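Reference record:
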Amino acid sequence: MLKDMVIQMVSLMDRLLKLENMDLHLTPYQVLATGQDEGMVEFIPSSPLAQIISEHRSITSYLQKFHPDEDGPFGITAQCLETFIKSCAGYSVITYIMGVGDSNLQL
């Protein structure tokens, strides 16, 4: 139930930011509640960051391999780099506001 609520908050913040013309390229998971304490979360095929870095030595190398552009910034397509930067910023701000991952958040 808590995960569903967090996803709903991310979706709400994404919609509110877009209303202010701030598209941070957020992609909240789809969630289907099947009971009070159970549900299903959309499967997103991915690799852990540690695996990406061990195989490619850096995020930049990974992005260069899958979104190459010799004329783009850092050898990466401008669109890919913009999406990566905006989504990192958006998720960082949202998780900070919600206190995700910090049980000792003190303001």
Summary: The CA atoms of residues 32 and 64 lie 35 Å apart.
